[in-house]
Amino acid sequence: MRKFAGLLASLLLTVLGLLAVTFLIGRVVPTDPALSVAGDRATAAQLAAVREELGLNRPLYVQFGRYVAAVAQGDLGASLLTGNAVTSDIARVFPATLELATVGIVFGAAIGIPLGVWAAVRRGRLADQLVRLMGLVGYSAPIFWLGLMALALFYARLGWVGGPGRINVGFLYSVEPRTGLMLVDCLLAGDWEALQSAASHLVLPGALLGYFSLAYISRMTRSFMLKELSAEYVVAARAKGLSEARIVWRHALRNAAVPLLTVVALSYAGLLEGSVLTETVFSWPGLGQYITNALQSADMNAVLGGTLVVGAVFIGINLLSDLLYRWLDPRTR
């Protein structure tokens, strides 16, 4: 019970810190919220009235208290760009980011973990060097450049995949947006042509994000496996005559899977928050593009709301991975 109370207190402090950071960001940026609402041609009296209405003339601690109370009620303000509530805008665009990041982490984990195991088993050999080189390129190459090159090659040149956007324009209004996840909505509608179009648009940005996460996952998998393969129980298993494949996949990888779970979870959270450039390059109507458009239009309610959601998602996934880590490994309890 004491551990649960400590975990809850830590979570509350983290959320409060996130709220404080987003609040301060909204106050230190050069954009005047009152001027954004009233317009460039507003008089001094009109600006003063807007500041009074928004509470901007009150002390910072009072403004922060009102901000926390509004967020607790699910009120992130209204977007100047769309005219809608920020919460409704985020609910509309977040499924696109969720779909893209999910495909990316599935791609990254499904390929990155076996590559990391292979590199550890072949330590110092050509296979190990190739996997490490692949990871280095994934870390070093700018993701927007990779996206542009991938579009130029696989879409414009070869025509293997769909272009920017989530689906061909002809299917935009034929598929009812029930969940916001395009693949799921196409399946629910039973429209196989729309499903094929959505998949062709998703595969390239999803694979690009997957390659970005694959570089980190394969590297960490290799590190964990090298530690496990040098452990005493592996030496004992080899002395008993167990096959190398069984030692690697049934014993070493099983023990490495517990810390690897945290790596995959944090990579997933990173894709959910870090796909801004990918969404911009591929015109993907997700949270990253929403925040980018809001920044360009000085729409601070949308920027702060999107930032807050990203931070909350990261905290939630981090907490979930920590709980799973403790459940899978009793030594950490």
TrEMBL record:
Q: What is its main location?
A: membrane
Ranges for the ABC transmembrane type-1 domain? 94-325
Q: Which InterPro entries match?
A: BPD_transp_1_N, MetI-like, MetI-like_sf
Q: How does it sit in the membrane?
A: Multi-pass membrane protein
Task: Report which superkingdom the organism of origin falls in.
Answer: Bacteria
- Which CDD domains does the UniProt record give? TM_PBP2 (cd06261)
The alphabetized UniProt keywords are: Cell membrane, Membrane, Transmembrane, Transmembrane helix, Transport
Q: Where in the cell is it found?
A: Cell membrane
**Does the keyword ATP-binding feature in the UniProt annotation?**
no
Bilayer-crossing regions: 100-121, 133-156, 198-217, 256-282, 302-325
Q: Name one Pfam family in it.
A: BPD_transp_1
Which protein family is named in the record?
Belongs to the binding-protein-dependent transport system permease family.
This protein's name: ABC transporter permease
* Taxonomic lineage from the root: Bacteria, Pseudomonadati, Pseudomonadota, Betaproteobacteria, Burkholderiales
